[in-house]
């Protein structure tokens, strides 16, 4: 059984149900074109990591929270993820389902399980489940994804970079510990992307720093610090919390490897998105801007839109995490965690 509390990297379409018209959604073409042949709300041309993990575990696709509310089977878990969500409630608030709200939705499903299985049965089920987190990217994106990117951290006027990182981390840990209190013992954690090397920020770095720039290094710098702190926190939990098990996957390192050696993994284009416009096709929203471009062969691309990988790249991430035979996976593989 899997429970996903995440952002757009894992969102199967929960944001489709947000009434706010400015909510972050991917319920229009060309999203979903490669696998589903229609948009589902996933920010890619096809399937995401949760879909492939379910496949590797010989399970059907894990339903979204809103599917689970409407008599969809929850025997194999629920996906609560929301595109644009961060660890902090204020991150893109009113446009997303915040992490704390996702936790609240988990509690709703937990009560449903308790009513079906009883207290003892539901706790046994929850303790054997795997809780997967991929969240925090948007807490840092919102600091930089503005027309005039600051050259320093003056955007953190109310706190220091280190303090802000701790606030983000503490918000994530609070939710994890709440799940631990409910009996959760197995956690799969994906770290943050190399955000500064996504097409959006490659384009912004080009405009800001000129043709010799590649990635937005100042954004990647704080992401690296967050990822290191997260790894250390998980190792601490392993020592201090009874029964705590985890698998830590560095999508930062794995995606950087695709950026640096795309042909090794069957890709031809690692920097430019398949869908978008402007430098690296990193500007505008795929499918919404009148002038957006779409690549001829999405399987040649690592990145689909301004921020999100292609289905082919997501499959690679899921396989690396599942198998665990890589330096990008700490503690144990996702497969062994599920066992």
UniProtKB/TrEMBL annotation:
Residue spans crossing the bilayer: none
Signal peptide: none
Pfam family, one: Lipase_GDSL
Keyword terms, alphabetized: Signal
GO molecular function terms noted in the UniProt entry: lipase activity
InterPro entries noted in UniProt: GDSL, GLIP1-5/GLL25, SGNH_hydro_sf, SGNH_plant_lipase-like
Family: Belongs to the 'GDSL' lipolytic enzyme family.
Protein name: Zinc finger protein
Organism: Solanum bulbocastanum
